[in-house]
Design brief:
- It comes from Monosiga brevicollis (Choanoflagellate).
- Its main location: membrane.
- By secondary structure, this protein is α+β, with helices and mostly antiparallel strands.
- Helix content is 55%, strand content 8%.
- The chain has 49 helices and 20 strands.
- The strands form 6 sheets. Strands 9, 10, 11, 12, 16, 17, 18, 19 and 20 form a 9-stranded mixed β-sheet that branches. Strands 13-15-14 form a 3-stranded antiparallel β-sheet. The protein has a two-stranded antiparallel sheet with strand order 1-4.
- Helix 36 packs across helix 37 and helix 36 packs across helix 39.
- The radius of gyration is 38 Å and the shape is globular.
- The chain starts with 15 loop residues before the first helix and ends with a helix.
Length: 1333
């Protein structure tokens, strides 16, 4: 911020640069003593921007709205005369001090100091920084003996720069993902310490003799090789400033996360991680599992030396079982599973402590405070409580200025009720806990099963034939799953077929998709995957372990050999929980190498460890090369040329193609993205980063109208369209969270691995979604979605057109003849074009439950006086309807003295001559009296009021009625209080809307502005003559006025389609009753899009929603009103898979250009449309401020299990009880008498189950018959028949227990959901499943 010079600065005002970043408390104290008048005036001017000009009566309210600092200033401010100016104060200076005394003549201002050094206030930083400085100094002195002459001078310069970065952080930093990251200050000293320590350790081991042992032909201890590595590290230390300048090294947190993730991926065989803490905990768990396996294998090797065969075989079998069980459990556990366990334990501890009971309850019931709530981000006004520069005051706790949301739709949680998302998060947490318990049981079962199998001696007796056959079967089944079936189900099988050979059941219903049902292909793929995962792969890997055990121990000794065996076996067993597309290739390569080239083999387990690492890095290198050749290919030059820089550098890049290929290999080795510099043809290597890529955590809550202060709600009228459209992406996120893991397991998304990026396109709704797979395990998937603008730019539309283009229409010369067009394959040009794109079509139809979004311009529906008159007519009729049907509120209004005082003025000859009412807008306008008369209102709406009262009395005869019991609607006259109250409410609603319209009369759409303000519930009756309603019953305004305004929109739409439909009052009443949200939770929801009920209704899958939007489109800056209509249905998405290295490279390029190079051009060449790599859409999906997505979700986890997964303990108890009842009934039926087990079951059934109607009637009959009649049937000739009848009754009772329990569950679920009005698709699916059972 530019500061004013001393000559132009007002006297008495402090320097702006001194007070911006200074200590807030000190500034307030200083300002209170020397500038009270100026601070108070500034605070008052800020308050006048959002409120009317205050008067003396409004002074207390104005003082309450001022910030605390301004209140303190006002309290201590003396009465100053306007003519007297405060004296100028000198600048605050800081002298260097030693032991409390100033030293030297230098004096620096605070602004000057802040330009030289950073300000640290944390005690932790004050302790850490000197320790880092001492470490840098010590290591630089130790490294001085390894450098000579100029190298030593450069070393001390590098050390000085590392220490200075602790005093002043580098901004902007090429390795930072956002501007202003303070962690960049520690990157240079930490890297210097790490590299220096590595160089000193290598120098200490550089001496000695060459080792006799080798690993794949490389000596274990080679002094020459160690010296070369040491020299390379020394060169890296000197070149570290240049590496930081070009962004080759990341910040320390990103580097540590990447290191832990690479260890988990390539050492332990795991998958991606969601953050640094999860990666560290994952490495810790894997290390513990490998340690346990190593101890078991080491014990087996020691037993082998002691010649105890039986004991050795038992310990070896235990080691194999432990390896299988631990790998299964870790493969089923998500990366942050350990953190979730600790979090759950901590929350239980807080809940049990009495002191934290209130705080825990407040955190639980706070609306919108879910742990993983989605975040909406835009480049304009952000509806996010944590976004920078948010214009709204969003309190985290309960605010006394926040009004309750009285105009809620049914099913909307109140302020003291958990929201839908919090309820969903709680169900996901319960699912995680129950799933973890089941996984522990299954891991124990697998441990015991494979322990017994190994104990049988199968692996020792059947080798090597068992290994060869098991490997062949695994490779064959994997090839069938991950290549043959994948290609048969692809959009273009094998790259040249026109149509998929195997389709889903919903493939023929593109226009009207149905609920997806698993086909026989998906079921076959599921069961083949399960058998491969739990039977075939463990069998083959245990055969590898059995063959490698003795060889490794003999070659490397007992400790090292056991460690290699445990580590290799653990990784091989962990690989089965992720993507198996490379595992079977590695197994086939290992089998061929061990069979035909034994000299290069280091036992099958170690070979599998190394070969899989090489295949993973080779596949990553292949993806980078495809991105490089696609971006710089000659065949795409007309698409890629988005700037003059690319056209200039493209000829220069061709001779350096080999250099870029080598760069791509280095980038693949360290998992760093390869990016084009400023969109040119020159590629550089960015810093390595984890699969997650972006370091930002999205754990925020969405902003809602009910959580705002009332003086800030008016700004919600000008919310951009992108902010309102973010809820639809959040709804897609919820559906993907419930369905994605099962769909991937059934093969609907093709071959999926951690790091893959998919693109979902719904062209009808104009929704474009990037799905980034972060982590994939056995039964779960962690992912993140990014939603783009609905109405995007021209470049985005060009790329969407390319995605929507049908390759069957791309014909070359051979496809133009009629016989060739009937062939089942694509043209040659289409085949080549599909191979040269960075994306491929996965499925032309992916079905997901969602909404059909309809945006109709409101100007066409309110463009004439006749249509506006219809709206006012429907508004009045809706008010009459709610007055007649809401008897409780009507009685309260009529009993209020304020209402009675107003009704006294409305005599039969009353006329309102307010100039706001004109004849063009109102049906009941009295032209003779030139005003709104009560007589005309009664003539026009009297019959409708009588009809509503009669229908209300018929529907609720026992409830409180507006009319007395002796009255009837036919005797209703103009003097009745109900008629006058309806007239008064109708005038109030219309006058409130017309007053807003009068304020904006200069605009062409002033009518829509007024109606939108009334529809949104942000426009209250402000006139003196209209405040009686709020004084009488405050909740009457939302329950009558706002609700009627929203109902009028629905009725106006129906009238627009069929003007003669509502001429019949019965039809009109039935329509309003059908749209009335108070009658049922599954009716149409009509509300403002910024209302809490809108968000809750969308997330709860309400079938129909309606709203009026004032659209502010960020792309075209058009302001227009739209009627938003949502209809729940299954949507069809086109699914594409994008080259993940292309996405990572373009993300890194934009981050480098925008954050570090500071290119502010909005139409820069690096984001122009490029069809072959989707450059514009990928650039949009960056985090802000690099990109401009309208929605970025947190990293969420999807499970294959349904949320109603039973608890294992309860399930075992229920199963045992069920088996006990069945066996007891069976024995009772087979024994011929009920003495053995019948009485106990009968007593238990009577204790825990209510008596059935036929049982009670039988008991009553037996009671009335008397003892003589009941005992007459117990003779000897009836003994067998009686026993058989008793056993049959017992069998029927036992057989109906499960049905009774299911009915009880259904009744309880339906009752709870009806009471809370939050029935969702989860509850409906649970009820459907129970009914099917």
């Amino acid at each position: 911020m530019a500061t004013s010079s001393p000559q132009t600065q007002e006297p008495g005002l402090p320097d702006a640069t001194e007070s911006l970043d200074g200590d807030l408390t000190t500034w307030e104290a200083d300002s209170a003593s020397r500038m009270p008048v100026q601070a108070l005036d500034a605070a008052r001017e800020a308050a006048e921007d959002i409120t009317p000009v205050p008067t003396e009566e409004d002074a207390p309210e104005l003082a309450a709205t001022l910030p605390p600092s301004a209140q303190a200033v006002e309290a201590t401010a003396p009465e100053a005369s306007p003519s007297v100016e405060a004296p100028a104060q000198p600048k605050a200076t800081n002298h260097p001090r030693l032991f409390g005394r100033p030293i030297g003549p230098a004096s620096l201002s605070r602004a000057t100091l802040e330009q030289v050094i950073d300000k640290y206030t944390s005690r932790r930083m004050i302790v850490i920084i000197p320790m880092l400085v001492l470490a840098v100094v010590y290591l630089s002195l130790e490294l001085g003996r390894l450098y000579h002459d100029l190298g030593r001078t450069v070393l001390f310069g590098v050390a000085a720069s590392a220490m200075y970065s602790l005093l002043r952080s580098v901004q902007p930093d090429a390795s930072a993902s956002s501007v202003g990251q303070r962690s960049t200050a520690f990157s240079r000293p930490l890297y210097f310490i790490a590299l220096s320590s590595t160089a000193l350790i290598l120098d200490a081991h550089a001496g000695g003799q060459l080792s006799d042992r080798d690993f794949y032909g490389i000596a274990v201890h080679d002094p020459q090789l160690i010296g070369l590595v040491r020299d390379f590290v020394l060169v890296c230390i000197l070149a570290s400033p240049a590496m930081f300048l070009f962004g080759v090294l990341p910040i320390w947190s990103t580097a540590l996360h990447h290191l832990c993730e690479q260890l988990e991926l390539h050492v332990f065989g795991g998958t991606g991680t969601i953050n640094l803490a999860a990666a560290a905990s994952r490495v810790l768990l894997s290390s513990v599992a490998v340690g346990v396996s190593w101890a078991s294998f080491y014990g087996a090797a020691v037993m082998a030396d002691a010649d105890s065969t039986m004991t050795r075989q038992a310990v070896f079998a235990l080691a194999c079982g432990v390896a299988v069980g631990t790998s299964f459990w870790l493969g089923r556990l998500q990366s942050d599973g350990l953190l979730l366990f600790f979090e759950r334990a901590a929350s239980r501890g807080k809940t049990r402590s009495p002191s934290n009971a209130n705080s825990t309850m407040s955190e639980t019931i706070e609306p919108g405070s879910t742990l993983l709530a989605a975040t909406t981000t835009t480049n304009t006004t952000a509806l996010d409580s944590t976004s920078e520069g948010a214009p709204f005051d969003v309190p985290r706790s309960v605010d006394p200025h926040v009004e309750p949301d009285a105009d809620r739709a049914p099913g909307v949680a109140e302020s003291n009720t958990p929201s839908f998302m919090s309820t969903f998060e709680n169900s996901q947490r319960r699912l995680f806990q129950r799933r973890a318990a089941w996984d522990a049981l299954c891991a124990t079962a697998q441990l015991l099963i494979w322990l017994l199998i190994v104990l049988t001696g199968l692996f020792a007796a059947a080798q090597p034939h068992l290994r060869h056959s098991a490997t062949a079967v695994c490779c064959g089944v994997s090839f069938l799953l991950y290549y043959v079936l994948h290609q048969l189900r692809a959009a273009f099988p094998f790259g040249f077929r026109k149509q998929p050979l195997l389709t889903n059941r919903e493939a023929g219903t593109i226009l009207n998709p149905k609920r997806p049902v698993a086909s026989w292909v998906e079921q076959l793929e599921f069961w083949l995957n399960r058998s491969l995962l739990h039977v075939l792969l463990p069998l083959a890997i245990l055969a590898f372990i059995n063959d490698s055990a003795e060889v490794l121990v003999d070659r490397w000794g007992t400790p090292v050999g056991s460690l290699l065996l445990a580590l290799g076996g653990h990784k091989a067993l962990r690989l089965r929980s992720g993507d198996l597309s490379l595992v079977y290739v590695a197994m086939a390569a290992v089998e061929l190498a061990s069979a035909y080239d034994v000299s290069l083999s280091e036992t099958p387990v170690v070979d599998l460890f190394v070969v899989h690492f090489l295949l993973a890095k080779g596949y990553e290198w292949l993806l980078k090369l495809r991105f490089l050749l696609t971006y710089n290919g000659v065949y795409h030059m007309h698409d890629v040329l988005g700037s003059g820089l690319h056209a200039f550098t493209w000829p220069l890049a061709l001779p350096h193609l080999i250099v870029m290929v080598v760069q791509s290999g280095i980038a693949a080795l360290v998992s760093a993205p390869l990016y084009p510099v400023m969109g040119s043809a020159i590629f550089l290597v960015s810093y390595f980063r984890p699969i997650r890529f972006w370091e930002k955590d999205y754990r925020t809550s969405a902003l809602e109208q009910a959580t705002l202060r009332y003086d800030s709600r008016g700004r919600m009228l000008d919310v951009p369209a992108n902010e309102l459209n973010g809820i639809f992406y959040q709804h897609v996120l919820l559906k993907l969270r419930l369905q994605l893991a099962r769909d991937i397991q059934e093969g609907r998304w093709g071959v999926v691995s951690a790091g893959d990026v998919f693109l979902m396109c719904d062209l009808d709704n104009r929704m474009t979604i990037f799905v980034h797979i972060i982590e994939r395990g056995d039964g779960f998937v962690a992912f993140q979605i990014r939603g783009l603008e609905f109405a995007g730019t021209y470049c985005q539309s060009r790329e969407l057109e390319a995605l929507d283009r049908d390759p069957n229409d791309d014909r070359d010369l051979c496809q133009r003849c009629r016989p060739c067009t009937r062939l089942p394959w694509l043209s040659c040009r289409a085949i080549l074009r599909q191979q040269t794109y960075a994306w491929e079509a996965v499925s032309p139809m992916y079905v997901l439950k969602g909404y059909s979004i309809s945006l109709n311009p409101a100007s066409s529906m309110f463009g004439s006086y006749e249509l506006c008159r219809v709206l006012f007519d429907m508004l009045s009729r809706a008010i009459v309807y709610y007055m007649a049907t809401d008897a409780e509120l009507t009685c309260r209004l009529l009993a209020s003295p304020e209402v009675q005082a107003v009704l006294k003025e409305y005599h039969p000859d009353f006329v309102n001559w307010d100039p706001l009412f004109v004849i063009q807008y109102h049906e009941d306008y009295d032209a003779r009296k030139r005003g709104m008369s009560l007589q005309r209102f009664y003539e026009h709406y009297g019959d409708w009021l009588k009809h509503c009262l009669e229908q209300a009395r018929t529907d609720a005869a026992d409830d409180v009625s507006v009319l007395d019991s002796a009255e009837s609607a036919a005797t209703l006259t103009i003097e009745h209080d109900t008629v006058r109250l309806c007239f008064a409410l109708s005038l109030l609603a219309r006058r409130t809307m017309l007053r807003k319209m009068q304020q904006l009369r200069a605009q062409s759409d002033a009518f829509l502005h007024g109606y939108h303000a009334l529809f949104s519930g942000l426009l209250k009756p402000s006139g003196v003559q209209d405040r009686w309603l709020e004084l009488a019953v405050p909740e009457a305004v939302p329950r009558l006025v706002y609700r009627s305004a929203r109902m009028a929109l629905r009725l106006h739409q129906d009238h627009f389609l069929d003007p003669a439909e509502y001429e019949d009052m019965t039809t009109l009443f039935e329509s309003i009753q059908d749209y009335d949200d108070r009658k049922s939770m599954m009716r149409t929801v009509i509300c403002n899009e910024a209302d809490r009920s809108w968000r809750h209704s969308v997330m709860s899958d309400f079938p129909s929603l309606l709203s009026l939007r004032y659209n502010l489109d960020d792309s075209s800056y058009n302001r227009e009103f739209f009627i938003v209509s949502l209809t729940g249905r299954y949507r069809s998405y086109k699914l594409f898979k994008v080259n993940r290295e292309c996405v990572r490279g373009l993300w890194a390029a934009q981050q480098q250009e925008v954050l570090f190079l500071r290119n502010p051009a909005l139409e820069r060449g690096s984001i122009q449309n490029c069809i072959c790599v989707l450059r514009n859409m990928i650039s949009q999906s960056n985090d802000q401020p690099v990109g401009y997505p309208i929605f970025v979700s947190p990293i969420v986890t999807s499970y294959t299990q349904k949320p109603d997964l039973p608890d294992p303990v309860a399930w075992f108890v229920q199963t045992a009880r069920w088996l006990q009842q069945r066996f007891a009934a069976m024995f009772a039926f087979g024994s011929g008498g009920g003495d053995l087990g019948g009485p106990s079951i009968g007593s238990r059934a009577s204790d825990h189950r209510p008596a059935r109607p036929h049982q009670s009637s039988v008991q009553e009959t037996a009671t009335t018959m008397g003892p003589e009649q009941t005992t007459s049937h117990n003779g000897p000739h009836h003994e067998g028949r009686t026993s058989e009848a008793d056993s049959e009754v017992l069998f029927q009772e036992a057989a109906s227990d499960q049905e009774t329990e299911i009915e009880t569950v259904i009744d309880v679920a339906m009752t709870e959901q009806l009471q809370s009005s939050t029935m969702t698709h989860l509850d409906i699916d649970m009820v459907d499943d129970a009914v099917d059972v």
